[in-house]
Design a protein that fits this description.
globular, about 190 residues, alpha/beta, Rossmann fold
Length: about 190
């Protein structure tokens, strides 16, 4: 599998689980700021966890999953590619080995995760991969290309029909989803949202 010409981010299940965070990452990926990657195993994990937390959503997440796949057509790191690597890796939580293996197989520059402690720098950095919190990752996208990133957030907010979110309410949702510094940056640009 060939590498990607753009900066590539492997998205962990914990950042795909919350709909607002996942939507933010997909919206930014669509702009071309970075290439987003994940695996079917990562998909199964966020769907399983969400269905366990919200049983009313059981069997109703296929549409969301399919939309994510359609907006990022080159999303998949093939199972056979990462499985060939996984057995040679060790992490504090063995359930996260597949994420690092997928990042390696998918030629990722970083892993976007809220579980930073599960990916020790001394292990992950050996593979030239950075582990980054989603708030920091999104801030880097805003710094890299503020016009594209803010445009992506404006389009994202416009898609929210129920309820329609004011720019401030939109920033509050980002903050509630752990994107505290991103929310503050969005508040500085409310007139553009």
């Amino acid at each position: 599998m060939a590498g990607h010409a753009r900066y590539t981010a492997l998205l962990d299940a914990c950042v795909l689980y919350p709909v607002a965070l996942s939507d933010a990452l997909m919206s930014l990926a669509v702009t071309g700021l970075f290439a987003a990657k994940w695996t079917q195993s990562i998909e199964h994990e966020w769907i399983r966890n969400l269905e366990q937390h919200r049983p009313d959503l059981t069997g109703r997440l296929d549409t969301r999953r399919d939309m994510m796949r359609s907006v990022v057509p080159d999303w998949e790191v093939q199972e056979d590619a990462w499985q060939a690597i996984a057995s040679s890796l060790t992490l504090p939580d063995k359930d996260d080995v597949h994420v690092l293996a997928a990042a390696i197989a998918g030629h990722a520059d970083c892993i976007v995760t809220a579980n930073l402690k599960d990916f020790p720098a001394d292990t992950v950095n050996l593979f030239g991969i950075e582990v980054i919190h989603p708030d920091d990752f999104i801030l880097k996208q805003l710094d890299l290309d503020p016009f594209s990133a803010l445009g992506a957030f404006k389009e994202m907010r416009a898609r929210w029909k129920k309820p329609h979110a004011t720019p401030e309410a939109f920033a509050q949702v980002m903050e509630k989803n752990g994107l505290v510094v991103t929310a503050e940056r969005l508040r500085q640009a409310l007139q553009l949202l």
